Amino acid sequence: MTTPRHPAMPIEVNGLSKQYGAVAAVRDVHFTAHPGRVTGFLGPNGAGKSTTLRMILGLVRPDSGSATVGGSPFRDLPTPTRIVGATLDLAAAHPAMTARTQLRIQSDLGGHPRDRIDDVLTITGLHRAADRRTRGFSTGMHRRLALATALLGDPAVLILDEPSAGLDPAGVAWLRQLVVDHAAAGGTVLISSHQLAELELSIDDLVVINDGQIVWSGSRPDFVDGHPDLETAFLTRTMTTEAAR
Length: 245
Ligand SMILES: Nc1ncnc2c1ncn2[C@@H]1O[C@H](COP(=O)(O)OP(=O)(O)OP(=O)(O)O)[C@@H](O)[C@H]1O
Prior knowledge:
Blueprint: E1 11-20, E2 23-33, E3 38-42, H1 49-56, E4 64-69, H2 80-83, E5 84-87, H3 99-110, H4 116-123, H5 139-151, E6 157-161, H6 169-184, E7 188-193, H7 196-199, E8 205-210, E9 213-219, H8 220-224, H9 230-244
Parallel strand pairs: 3-7, 3-8, 5-6, 6-7
Antiparallel strand pairs: 1-2, 1-4, 8-9
Helix pairs in contact: 4-5
Bound molecules: adenosine-5'-triphosphate.
InterPro entries: AAA+_ATPase, ABC_transporter-like_ATP-bd, P-loop_NTPase
Domain ABC transporter: 11-236
Family: Belongs to the ABC transporter superfamily.
C-alpha cells in the first residue's frame, strides 16, 4: 500500500450545542469525519449544518461541547490554513482584483509558497480566468475561486459548506472528483449539502442532521440499505424525525 500524501486528521465533534434566542440551532451533536473518507453532512434547510461547521472552525462559540481537528481545537492549530481548507459563504472577493491577485494576497497571509497559486488555479480549472477581474465572474467561478483559496495551503482537511451550489453539471462532476481524489490521498473531507443526488457518488459516510439533531450517521451502504436510493433513504429518515416531534 502506498503511504497517504496527507497526515491522518480526523474531525471529531463532541456534544456541540448552540441556541439562538428561542431557536435550538444545534443540539448535542456528535460525529467523526474520518481521514481517507468523504463524509456528507446532510440535512434540510435550517437543520443546523452551517452552524455546526462554523463551530468546528471556531467562528461560532458553542454553548456546550467541543470539536477538534487532528486532536486539537481549530483555534489551537499551529498553521490552520495548512491543515484545514474551508469554504463557507462565497468569499467576499474584491471585484476590481483578478483571481490571481486575490490568491496571492491569501497565499501571503497564510505563509504559503507562491508557486502553489498556479497549482490551485489548475486544480480548480480557473487558470484561463486567472488574470480577469472577479467582478465578471459567475457564481460557479466564485465557487471555484473559494475552493482555490481553500487549497492554497495543501490542507489535509477540507470543510466545504454547500460547495456545489451554483456549479453547472460539469462543475459538479469536477467537484465530486476533487473530493474523491482528496480522500484517496489520505485527506479528510466534510461536505455539507441538501443536494443529495449531486454528491451521492462521492460520499463514503453520511451524517444526517434534522432540526439541530443528528438523526443518522454511518456508511453510505448502511444508510441506503432497504431503500431504492439515497434520496428516498434521506427523505424517509428526516420525515420520520419530523413526524416524531
Ligand atoms: N446568527 C444567527 N442568529 C439567529 N439564528 C440563527 C443564526 N444562525 C443560524 N440561525 C438559525 O439556526 C438554525 C440553523 O441554521 P443553519 O444555518 O445552521 O442551518 P443549515 O442546515 O446550514 O441550513 P441551510 O441548508 O438552509 O443553509 C436556523 O433556524 C437558523 O435560522
